[in-house]
Amino acid sequence: MADNHLWTKEKEVDFFTKSLEVASPEQLFYTTKNRKYYAYWPKNYKGSKTTLQSRNAFIGAYTEKWAQSVLKDVAKDLGAYAVRNVVCEELELTKGSPADVAICKKDSVFQEPENILALFEVKMSIVWNWELIKEKSQNRLECLGDYKTHQGNPGLLRSDSMLKAIGKSISVRISSIESAKIPIVILGNTPVMKSYYTKVDNLRNYGIIQGFWSLNPAPLDNNGENIKTTKGNGFVRFDSFSDFNDSLLNLLKEERTFFAGMKTKKQLGKAIEISNKEETYERKAERFLNLMGMEKNV
User: How far apart are CA 181 and CA 47, in angstroms?
Assistant: First the structure.
């Protein structure tokens, strides 16, 4: 039985069904000369092709709302809220480029850094290929296959989507010292490309992004093999909501701090020696971060 909190084919049917109430088929599907409607051009399609930009706004809004609904259940456990389009000037999250979704202490679009518990960028799209078949009584959607059967690169398989997510995350990280304690997670519904395996692990290891997390447990049909996790857990595919919920709560409940720098060994050694004089691990860490310039007041 499919987990309603995870991405499935049924979510894509729901997207097209609802979107067709306000948009034309031509806005949501690639259209052939003989009036066939495809979500993506099939791998074996040889005819003339057109571009399709109009669907992006529809699928972007749908997946962000869906991600918000999933995160609401986690936020409740923390006495917090899942909020869309969060603006925080200190973190360079503006009205023109807000956070897709954030878990916050206050239920408001406008937030202060100290009230943001986590930031999420949603990089999801249509994964399977669909044909819209127009019949006299009603339209019908037929699934033509998974992402290996069409010419598209959905979700995290699209390089420009990955680069945008990485770029925005770096912008937030270097915008202010206030961002140092806020986890950033990229939510997707596909695996990442092999060329990004090392990159996503490095981004997690360096503390810039806490993970690229896929909420699609079965992106390939017939139990097709696809990556569960990269070596350093930079990418993780969640197969149940409970696993996702546990991982996210674990990330949020214990305070973490991002730190980075280019110091000489002498500078690092001196900082370690001074920090080691503190009595507890927590105070040692705070002192070290202060010496690295990552804590305002210690």
Answer: 51
